[in-house]
Design goal:
Layout: H1 2-26, H2 46-49, E1 53-58, H3 69-83, E2 87-90, H4 107-113, E3 124-127, H5 138-143, E4 158-163, E5 169-174, H6 199-212, E6 217-221, H7 237-242, H8 244-249, E7 254-257, E8 263-267, E9 274-278, E10 293-297, E11 301-307, E12 311-318, E13 323-330
Parallel strand pairs: 1-2, 2-3, 5-6, 6-7, 7-9
Antiparallel strand pairs: 1-11, 4-5, 8-9, 8-10, 11-12, 12-13
Length: 332
Amino acid sequence: MKKKLFFLVSLASALIIISCNEKKASSGIATGEKTNTTDSTSIVTKKTFGRAFNFIIVSDWGWNGFKHQQEVADQMAKSADSVNAKFIASCGDNFQVSGIASTQDPLWMLNYENVYKGLSLQVEWYPVLGNHDYKGSPQAEIDYSKISRRWRLTEHYYTFVKKINDSISACFIFLDTPPLVAEYYKRPEEYPEITKQDTAKEMRWLKGVLENSKEQWKLVFGHHPVYSASKTHGNTKEMIERVKPLLEKYHVQLYFCGHDHDFQHLHEKGGKVDYVVTGTGGETRPSSTDELSLFSKSEPGFSVVSLKADSLRICFVSTKGNIIYSFGRGYK
């Protein structure tokens, strides 16, 4: 009788474990995941993100209000208001499909000003250039910074520092990654400005910024992934060869990008850098996973980053304001 009872209890326990694992897998959370995660019923609120330096990241959004761009923008405005977002970072492909022609291009109104019109989004925007931006005039996107009070793409690559509190600061570094990628040089008629860029100069600049940075937090933004599990683009060979060694050597905590149109969190075993793909601002594509994947999901949305003195939390947020996934880490 005791043996039979023990068997039934063991069987019930096994079924519960299997059920829990299946639930995690179906929600996009990897079984055995060690980072903090939240389910899709959690909402971005002031209480969740209070007393922190908060900002929003959106990427691959330039669809003139079509695809999912407008609904993402509308929820961004609500979430930015809730968390008192200090600024918006954009990881490129600001203008699909062929960039813009000038600072007077009507796409500025159709694609940007009339889409991100919420009061809470009238903060500084810090964009980078994507490959689609290079199909038009990247200089026009830079020059628009002289016209707009919020568009702050002042150079091809740039950096600034923000204080988190009296003793902790963060260094934000924005890269120009399309010129680092060899495939675009094969199509000069499609990317006429690519060959004019001095990538060796950019790499020297990046090394110098990281080498001289005394800030506790170092966050780097670019369009192309270092690592990505997506079958559309995936890993970027040139970024692994040229950028990744600098991220590791100078203790960068996070690299943010777009290019692949999904949410991803990747981390190398034994590595110190977290890689985040957040290319979901307008169009989504199927997601997939690989050996570095901690999370992957295809859903339109954006990311909210919350910085405190010794900790950081990132949330992937849907168009309904739900937190799809979140993780946290310290700066060491």
